[in-house]
Amino acid sequence: MTLEQIKQHLKELDTIAFQLPDGSLVPRHFHVTEVGKITKHFIDCGGTIRNEEVVNFQLWEANDYDHRLHPEKLIHIIELSDKLLNIGDLNIEVEYQGTTIGKYDLDFDGINFLLTTKQTDCLAKNNCKIPEYKTKTSLSELRKEADNCCTPSSNCC
Length: 157
Fold this sequence. Notes:
Elements: H1 3-11, E1 18-19, E2 30-43, E3 49-61, H2 71-85, E4 92-97, E5 101-108, E6 113-117, H3 125-128, H4 139-149
Parallel strand pairs: 1-6, 3-4
Antiparallel strand pairs: 2-3, 4-5, 5-6
Helix pairs in contact: 1-2
């Protein structure tokens, strides 16, 4: 999800809820403690220099149960951050404290913002000679397919 997309979704909501990958909700008394642009300048294992930029939201739970972040307030925070930091319409990454700081992608299901899992990946598979992932199939399954395909009534020949 990009910065512009979250602002559009927020305009349609009365309350904000973030749902973790396990289905539980971030407690409603959370705060967005940071909105910023993260720049990652790195070299991959194949020797290619890369630059990545994302908008970073940091969610934090406080013991402040009397204040809730409303959509219009988050829109204001986003617009101020964009203006002062010149963020642009980048993809959003969310940090949230679990047993360690987790980093999540962001999606929306029409009601809740969904914190979705991120995966590491090799960006230079061709250079590293990483074999393509092959689906494991049991020999008994192959035999069933062959039996179904090569019968006189199958019209496969």
